Amino acid sequence: MSYRWLVLLIYLAVVLLLGLTLIFAPTIRSSKSWLVIGPLRFQTAEFAKVALILMLSYFFARRHIAIANWENIFKSFVYFIILAILVLLQPDLGSVLIFSSIWLGFLLVSGIPWRYIFIGLAVFIIISPVAWQYLLKDYQKERVIAVFNTEYSPLKVNYGVNQSKIAIGSAGFWGKGFGQGTQVRLGFLPEAQSDFVFAAFVEEWGFFGGSLIISAFAFLIFRIVKIGLAAENNFARLVCLGVIIMMLAHFTLNVGSAVGLLPVVGVSFPFLSYGGSNLLANAILVGIIQGIMARSSFFRGMPLLMESR
């Protein structure tokens, strides 16, 4: 089976899963995001990120020379918007922001003329008031307002961010020790295992531990960049690019919300946040990159990306 049919099959399978999720998934925390199959529970939006990266990688690898053609831009947008709409209906705004980052990232590196980018920015500015008024829910608007007004609703909307700042600010250089973080141990920090996992980790391990986590993440990104540059075809290079964009978007939104610079949208920290679906999706992408590395003549005989020494 060629890459084309395999990628298309994966994409269509994910579209089907997202549709089944909207129909059959139970409502958990006001969202129909988890498809329950017996004792297993899957967050299907996480696998949609894998499908989108593979689909856009194949599309741009085949059309990168003529990507400035409006028809090609529109086709790539269709691949993105189908998944985005299905996930937005759950609703899961955080995942939609990740999808948007992936699609825009591919456009920016595909050689699209700058005038198209400025046209896109102008359109975004024009439709933003409409999106604010009719697309965002009230609690989503409040989270955006909370970023610019730290005193807004300190016991509700801003509560989690305020507790996150306290956890990080009180950690010091070495932290309070494993299992000794007061904000986590006493239950003040909400979603300490997912949305605010960075704050929970820093509270226990301090500035030193936080620096190690960021350094480890930066090293992972560096390795993927190196593998992508040495890949032997455009499809492999673009897969590496898509994974980098996705992980950087996750990192930025997760850490940015933990320190109060961005709204809290429920995005995980790669390989650190709790969540089996997110971990499995990231592992699948790293496995694909391992395969790219194994097939690259530049890396033959060298240790694999995640191989222990």
Provide the structure class.
mainly alpha
Count of DSSP-assigned helices: 11
* Mean residue pLDDT: 86
Low-confidence stretches: none
Cα-based radius of gyration, to the nearest Å: 20 Å
- Number-wise, the strands total 2
Strand order within the widest sheet? 1-2
Order of helices and strands: HEEHHHHHHHHHH
Question: Number of folding domains?
Answer: 2
Give the distance, in angstroms, between the N- and C-terminal Cα atoms: 35 Å
The dominant shape is globular
β-strand percent reads: under 5%
* Helical residues, percent: 55-70%
Could you describe the largest sheet, including whether it forms a barrel? Answer: 2 strands, antiparallel
Question: What does this protein structure show overall?
Answer:
The chain has 309 residues and is mostly helical. The chain folds into two domains: 1-136, no CATH class; 149-309, no CATH class. Helix content is 66%, strand content 3%. It has helices at 3-24, 44-63, 70-88, 93-109, 114-134, 138-148, 159-169, 182-185, 197-230, 234-258, 276-295, and strands spanning 34-37, 40-43. A hairpin with a 2-residue loop joins strand 1 and strand 2. The longest helix is centred in the last third of the chain and has 34 residues, at 197-230. The two termini are 35 Å apart. The mean pLDDT is 86.
Which structural traits does this protein have?
309 residues; mainly alpha; 66% helix; globular
